[in-house]
Fold this sequence. Notes:
The complex is a heterodimer.
Chain A: E1 2-7, H1 14-24, E2 28-33, E3 44-47, H2 67-77, E4 82-85, H3 87-94, E5 101-103, E6 111-119, E7 135-142, E8 146-148, H4 151-159, E9 163-167, E10 187-191, E11 197-200, H5 218-232
Parallel strand pairs in A: 1-2, 1-3, 3-4, 4-11
Antiparallel strand pairs in A: 5-8, 6-7, 6-9, 9-10, 10-11
Chain B: H1 6-11, H2 16-26, H3 32-41, H4 44-47, H5 52-55, E1 65-67, E2 74-79, E3 82-90, H6 92-97, H7 99-116, E4 120-130, H8 136-156, E5 160-167, E6 176-186, E7 201-206, H9 216-219, H10 240-254, E8 259-264, H11 269-281, E9 284-288, H12 301-306, E10 312-317, H13 322-331, E11 337-343, E12 347-352, E13 355-361, H14 362-365, H15 382-385, H16 399-407, H17 416-419, E14 439-442, E15 449-455, H18 458-463, H19 465-482, E16 486-495, H20 502-522, E17 526-532, E18 536-537, E19 540-541, E20 545-554, E21 571-575, H21 586-592, H22 604-619, E22 625-628, H23 633-642, E23 650-654, H24 681-690, E24 697-701, H25 706-715, E25 720-726, E26 730-735, E27 738-744, H26 745-760
Parallel strand pairs in B: 4-5, 9-12, 16-17, 23-26
Antiparallel strand pairs in B: 1-2, 2-3, 3-6, 4-6, 7-10, 7-11, 8-10, 9-11, 12-13, 14-15, 15-20, 16-20, 18-19, 21-24, 21-25, 22-24, 23-25, 26-27
Helix pairs in contact in B: 7-8, 7-10, 8-10, 10-13, 19-20, 19-22
Amino acid sequence: MKFSVVVFPGSNSDYDAFYAASSVLGEDAALLWHKDTDLQGADVVILPGGFAHGDYLRTGAIARFSPIMASVKAFADRGGPVLGICNGFQVLLEAGMLPGAMVRNDRIKFVSRLVPVRVEQTDTPFTVACASKQVLHMPVAHGEGNYYADPETLAALEVNRQVVFRYADAAGEVSPASNINGSLNNIAGICNRQRNVVGLMPHPERATEAQLGSADGRVILASAVKALASLSR
Amino acid sequence: MAVIDAAVLERHGIKPDEYQRILELMGREPNLLELGLFSVMWSEHCSYKSSRVHLRTLPTTGPRVVQGPGENAGAVDIGGGLCAVFKIESHNHPSFIEPYQGAATGVGGIIRDIFTMGARPIALLNALRFGSLDQPLARRIFEGVVAGVGGYGNSIGIPTVGGEIVFDDRYSGNPLVNVLCLGISRIDGIVKGAAKGAGNPVFYVGARTGRDGIHGATMASAEFDEKSAEKRPAVQVGDPFMEKLLMEACLEVMTTGAVLGIQDMGAAGLSCATSEMGSRGGLGMTIDVRHVPQRETGMTPYEIMLSESQERMLLVVEKGREHEVTAVFEKWDLHAVQIGEVIEGSRLKIHEHGVLVADVPNRGLTDEAPVYRRPMQEPSWQKDVQTLSLGDLGAPPSAQDAFNRLLTVPTIASKRWAYGQYDHSVGTNTIAQPGMSAAVVRVKGTTTGLAVSVDGNGRFCYLDPHRGAMLAVAEASRNVACAGGEPIGGTNNLNFGNPERPEIMWQLGEAVRGIGEACRALGIPITGGNVSLYNETEGRAIFPTPVLGVVGLLEDASQTTTRAFKQAGATVVLLGDNLGELGGSEYLATMHDTVAGQPPALDLAREAAVQKLIVALIRGGLVESAHDCSEGGLAITLAECTFNSGGIGVTADIAAVGLSAVAPHDNSGAKVDDKPSGLSIPWQANATLFGESASRIVVSAAGDRLDAVLAAAKAASVTAAVIGKTGGDRIRLSVGGVAVVDAAIHDAEQAWATAIETRMGRG
């Protein structure tokens, strides 16, 4: 199967996602220039981390106008799995493909460290290989990862089981103490109503090899492979 | 026509004798623009006029050296047709005036030096110095610098993987921001900053030129006084997004082969890039400033040539292949503009709308810049500060009190407050997490890894610049070795005061001599670096602070280790001799408010032996952890081995140092403590635990490997002492069988980990 990774000007984890999909998982992978419209036969589209267009306005605010995004949206509308990581998550929010918004981390500063994240839902294409309530250690590296939504949206997210990941402690306890950036309800990642579009702030593509500190993120990409395999059966 | 009088010369930092030389080189009076070119190119920052005679003595060659000093960065062969491209550079003066932008543009500048060589940058490290965190000004500068380092590196997506931070009042008016960038290139893909072929077009690409940073290099070549804040407009503003585009576009365009030479516009901007590329290539260059993209209207040729606006590059392109180059830049929404061409001869000709406005000999600006053999004089106070009589310092604190206090001294405490703001995982190459002694990154597509460390000890260099500089080389190299890396190349950043003062020049000369000696003994060629002088405020200089960056090669990146203990029940071994040397130690500074004595002795043959040994032990899988002993001595080293280990404690008993070894090294005629019999037992314990003798490494080894470790040490003629065992949840240290330190790891680690954030406040 094929992972296609979008390259915006200012993306900086594009090659990391490409490398994880191709060299670590051994799947096909392609890099898609943001000015193109062809997804190159993607089975999965990844919007990578970085600072698309510099993020000087609002994170992700300009990237949504890139020509490739119309194709990504159409792909998602057809049920294609789309994963937005960090800045890619912010782009999905700005593009209206996921609800809510990101604001500055509650302690203002950029946060960079390995954090435990609890998997809340296993019926998305990016968590289908996870165990229920599985705790994954993945790096975060962001200044604006403080998830915000109005009360109605937040309530709907919870009722519809759209919160896919929450910041937790190593034992899987979700508490204010395990909330690294002030996100409402400790939200680290969500999906859309159709469950095929997932966005998260932690970086699974940076946690696919034990040598680099954690291989826990591999299951996220492996989930997509599993989900695709079950579809084609 | 501007009149060049004494006031104009002074404003340009040109001394009368230098002006005479300009008249000779020009054969006529220069106009104001031409004077401006000489001013920035002959500034200390660009010309190295005070340090050059000393730098020439450094070892710069070796079997692995692909590129030595003189280019944008150095390069060493790492096998497989690849090379490591690296350099360290300072941005000290701007970081005092405007901490965030000063640090950010420092990061941006060194990154450009690396990708200009055709290398993809994969790691950043920094060596930082600030005043005491008790001062609000130091906290503000520290906060701003850390945010700036992170702000630029995080955005562009190059991980900041390591470094060191030291706090001392001597840096309160002159913080140091030294940044090292490491990149990887194919050896045959290296591109140089030289003009080639008369008639080839010269292209400008990147950010537009504004009035920022005019005379930045000149600012960095003068002392600070109460008016320094007025120099804020001389600090540039960074745009990491523009640099990211430039980096990707330049790396892509270099693969076309149509780029013959490339140089970034850093200090002295367009003046430096045009004259250096010309003189390196033995050719001239002609440009018209009308073609230079400008951010503001009404800019004069003087302003355009001297601007230090960031994120700009100059390229020499093969004639007829311009479209290949412009197509790549267009893809990245950058506009490459032809501003001139390479010409025969050796002159830099600057036009404005076709009218010649400056015409100077290239080499007059570069290679023929003044070189000073400035007078050197050992400071009158040097011998006095080397005098240390422990008996005069009053009753020593208990080892337990000293241990508790030293753990929370900002220089020793965990730097997570800083590196928690640096993206260290982007790029998926970072093996050793920040906070370990050396950073370790893998090289994708190979089994190879690179270990990198930056180190310097200003206190040691203040007490003895020659030995202090040797110790800096030894420590950086030892840290790399402790991660399993064989040291293969080095870069140095010399941070000193005003070179026009003979005692500062003496410090610099002695330090460079020490670096050369140590590098020769340890087989480390210096492939480039940077000199930052005039780090003084109102006549008070920083500690002389040479910072060494050393790169080490791991042929198998999996054969590495960290300082943290890996399991209970392992045997703890001290490699090297514990001599109890307290001169210049953190212990004396913190517990006795004293900076005095001789820095620790350094036997370079022993240092080389212990480094070779540790690399072999790690490669052979014989040791589970390795940690070099530095600030805070053996006690702090052992405590740090328990930190980040998941709570694996240690019980160790260390042989008391012989009292005569407390200050044994008198090769300078300085007075040393000659009353060993007068030293009490507490002094003996503290010297044993907190002395900072060089060439020591603490390792842990599983029981079945211990004999092999000891045998290897014996074969290498390295002293190896079994001092304890890992296990339990406490740090228990005794000296000569007497228990002196006992602490729960949890408490000690918490105090160490939170000491800086406690001082900074949550925020």
